[in-house]
Amino acid sequence: MTDMHTGSCNCGAVRFSTRGVLREVVACHCSQCRRQTGLYYAATNVLDRDLEVTGAGNVTWYRSSPEAQRGFCRTCGSALFWKMDGQDYTSIMAGVFDLPTGLAIGRHIFCADKGDFYAIEDGLPQFAQSDL
Fold first, then answer.
1. At CB < 8 A and 24+ separation, what contacts does 71-75 make?
2. pLDDT digits (tens, 9 = 90+) for 97-127
3. Potential cystine with 14: which of 9, 29, 44, 112 (Cβ 3.0-4.6 Å)?
4. pLDDT tens, 34-89?
5. DSSP string, the chain
6. Would you say the pTM of this structure is higher than 0.90?
7. Per the omega criterion (within 30 degrees of 0), is the bond before 100 cis?
């Protein structure tokens, strides 16, 4: 997928724009993602050079593991970004993009850790852990 995409947190303190190719959406069902969102992360990613953030001073980064951190709006708490150390891309939550997104979920990861209150029945590939 190409083009320009925009989005924001719930309160608008953080806005972003992307250009270039966005990856298909990956749904992550790990316990960290579930605890942060209440369900699961659904995120695409973009190369850092193709991401522009306005209001970056309103993003709080939380080190959620030794190798990654999660960015959220310090005003409204919206989950926005996930960033693995040493990578040249940033994952962006699919739900924070302005419509229409043109995005679609392509696969599910960490399904062995998913919540017990829902089923994954969309027929897309499912991986017990990561698919990497």
1. 72/9, 72/36, 73/9, 73/10, 73/11, 73/13, 73/14, 74/13, 75/9, 75/11, 75/13
2. 999 999 999 999 999 999 999 999 999 999 9
3. 9
4. 999 999 999 999 999 999 999 999 999 999 999 999 999 999 999 999 999 999 99
5. --SEEEEE-SSSSSEEEEES--PPEEEE--HHHHHHHSS-EEEEEEEGGGEEEESGGGEEEEEEETTEEEEEETTT--EEEEEETT-SEEEEEGGGBPSP----EEEEE-GGG--TT----S---B-SS---
6. yes
7. yes
Find tokens 């698919």 and name the residue: 131
Q: How far apart are CA 62 and CA 25, in angstroms?
A: 22
Q: Which amino acid is at 30?
A: C
Which residue is it, tokens 């027929």?
Answer: 123
Question: Which residues, in sequence order, are CB contacts of 44 under 8 Å at separation 6+?
Answer: 22, 23, 24, 25, 26, 91, 92, 94, 103
Cα separation, 19 vs 63, whole angstroms: 27
